[in-house]
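User: quick one, fold this
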Amino acid sequence: MRFAPVPDYHMHTPRCHHAIGSVREYAEAALRIGLNEIGMSDHSPMPGGFDAAWRMDRSELTDYLAEVEAVRDEFAGRLTVRIGLEADFHPGSESYVRDMTGAYPWDYVIGSVHYLGDWGFDNPDNLDDWNGRDVEQAYCDYYATVAASAATGMFDIIGHPDLIKKFGHRPAPGSRRVRAAEEAMLDAVQQAGTALEISSAGLRKPVAEVYPHGQMLALAAERGIPFAFGSDAHAPGEVGHAMGTCLGMLAACGITEVVRFDQRQRFPVAIRELVP
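Assistant:
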């Protein structure tokens, strides 16, 4: 089953210290695979040097914006390039993030949780920190933090909503606590009117699974939560990665559209199956 392309809104630049390629190279890659809209969303600055090794510094924000704006203007008429940001939600930094996201006319802001307290649970350098962890509690804490991020109203898209599974650590099958935490998170996203990301990035990680997992996706569909697609590309060759797989999962849940953004206004994009 093949689908017409939809926007890919999650991709990074070398400013985050773990991606390669210029914004122009990402745009060229998008055109090569037939996309007509993308969005750059590099990791945002955070206060006090928090997680500085994995994100741009506040001093780099002006250059980031200038580069994306230049490519947006250069490719106008061939490719729509949106200007976004992946902003971390870390309790205590809300005022900083709110100020930063209010200081520029972003097209969208992705809200992501990469830390539980001072534990960067998805950082491969911290993989040993999983040893001895209560995995069920980690999942519950993660979903509670994602729910809190949605409740702030600061974000347009909730990024990779079950990132906690990245390295393949799983709670006991059928955990009622984890299921309740997942549902509470989805209820918070629904109440906030925020979109959820369906991300192919998990297919490139040890877990080898789309974010979110199929059951969560179905629960979100039941709630009418809108979805945005993101490849979480950290190299131009990852742009649009496994888009068809993700759209097929959405279609299987009865979802007929994803969303696009323009200056933080949300619009529907139909998921169209292509006739062979």
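User: anything notable?
Assistant: The CA atoms of residues 106 and 263 lie 6 Å apart.
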